[in-house]
TrEMBL record:
GO terms for cellular component: plasma membrane. Pfam families: PqiA (PF04403). Keywords: Cell inner membrane, Cell membrane, Membrane, Transmembrane, Transmembrane helix. Coiled coil: none annotated. It comes from the Bacteria. The chain crosses the membrane at residues 51-70, 98-124, 145-168, 174-194. This is Paraquat-inducible membrane protein A. It is found in: Cell inner membrane.
Amino acid sequence: MSALPRAHELGVIGCHVCGLVCRDTGVQGAACPRCGSALHRRMPGSRARTWALLIAAFILYIPANFLPIMRTVSLGDVDDNTILTGVVELWVKGSPDLAIIVFTASIVVPMMKFLVMVTLLLSVHRGTNWARTQRAKLYRLVEFIGYWSMLDVFVVSLLTALVQFGFFSEVEPLPGVVYFGLTVILTMLAAMSFDQRMIWDCKDEDD
């Protein structure tokens, strides 16, 4: 199957900020007429910046899992819970729905984002034309779930509010929440810094 025309062959360029398709004038430093952002065929330093942010996020994700994320006090018992022990605590306390939300938002989603972003970066580095459409969809999925990545932090806030309803006598956020929040922010920045147009750059243009 012959390859579809590329943007540079059609004389157009897409703005990486607002998505507007603009006429490529070839002028260095040209700006998008809609949002004013500089137009680039590819975002400068995208791969290096994405790798740096992703590695930093993974480093912070380690203490986010091993440091206590919340403290619960119930009937005189004080428990400092990590993410996983917090999931167990929620389940035992009769909140399986919250336990599932915390597990999904804190374990499943971050690990999936790490795996997807590493796959995208490695495939871009190799310049392969393997499953480009599927990889583009994976990137859009990472972008979408990024907006829900702070659910774990919100749950801790929700648990604090539950004190008023007598489910727990006291709930207190601990340093693990900070590390997890930083991990989420860095993974979101990594996804934003990745220029998805690089997916379509390959050594072999034939599918």
